[in-house]
């Protein structure tokens, strides 16, 4: 009786433009109700969608969450970087060392992502979208293990990672110290209630696990916004609602 991860949601200044960028990088079909809400339909290896909604303000600091893309060869890594740059990405410096093999880029709205070097054993078998990498404590990693019911696949030196039982991207947390948040997060998780549970029942379960309410109910068909133990917002959708 655990929640389902429906999507990783980006708050964007131009949702359609950002969605087209990520569709070009990740592949997949775009759907949605207009320019303010666009969905990148999940692929089989991913299991969750990527949603783009209107609402991003000025970027005040490094995001708490980013995508790690994998490579099968040096040529493949270069091709992913070149393709991303051609679609509107740019190189950025977030303190990575010259000897590190991954390439750090930002999408057209400044959201960081990494193109990981080939041979990375931790992400082996995870698919092209290898991980959703988060800045967060061990406590929050254990919270999300319980929230989603995904097995804990890494738990060392305060770093944690979970992965769906059927495989796909890992969700990782880098451990303490956790960077101070700079305003409301641009990326967040969107959940739907588990089987046999309604929205309020799911909210109550998540609160019992350590989440806190940051906004009240938004009506019959609206999402409930919560915060995980590190203060990162996420939302629980109403039953039968595919996105907020």
From TrEMBL:
InterPro entries given in the database record: Glyas_Bleomycin-R_OHBP_Dase, Glyoxalase_6
Gene3D superfamilies (UniProt xref): 2,3-Dihydroxybiphenyl 1,2-Dioxygenase, domain 1 (3.10.180.10)
Domain Glyoxalase-like, chain residue ranges per copy: 8-116, 132-237
Pfam family for this entry, one: Glyoxalase_6
Coiled-coil residue windows: none
Protein name: VOC family protein
Source species of the chain: Amycolatopsis samaneae
Lineage: Bacteria, Bacillati, Actinomycetota, Actinomycetes, Pseudonocardiales
């Amino acid at each position: 009786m655990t929640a389902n991860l429906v999507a990783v949601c980006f708050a964007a200044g131009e949702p359609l433009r950002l969605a087209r960028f990520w569709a070009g990088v990740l592949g997949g079909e775009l759907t949605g109700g207009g320019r303010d809400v666009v969905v990148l339909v999940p692929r089989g290896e991913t299991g969750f969608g990527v949603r783009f909604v209107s609402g991003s303000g000025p970027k005040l600091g490094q995001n708490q969450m980013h995508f790690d893309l994998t490579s099968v060869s040096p040529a493949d890594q270069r091709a992913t970087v070149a393709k991303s740059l051609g679609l509107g990405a740019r190189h950025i410096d977030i303190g990575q060392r010259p000897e590190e093999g991954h390439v750090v880029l930002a999408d057209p709205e400044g959201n960081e992502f990494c193109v990981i070097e080939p041979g990375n054993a931790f992400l082996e078998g995870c698919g092209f979208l290898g991980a959703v990498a988060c800045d967060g404590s061990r406590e929050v990693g254990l919270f999300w293990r319980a929230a989603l019911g995904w097995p804990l696949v890494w738990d060392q030196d305060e770093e944690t990672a979970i992965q769906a039982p059927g495989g796909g991207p890992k969700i990782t947390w880098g451990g303490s110290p956790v960077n101070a948040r700079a305003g409301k997060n641009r990326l967040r998780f969107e959940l739907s209630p588990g089987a046999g549970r309604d929205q309020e029942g799911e909210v109550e379960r998540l609160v019992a696990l350590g989440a806190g309410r940051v906004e009240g109910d938004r009506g019959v068909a609206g999402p409930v916004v919560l915060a995980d133990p590190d203060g990162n917002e996420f939302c629980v959708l109403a039953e039968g609602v595919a996105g907020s």
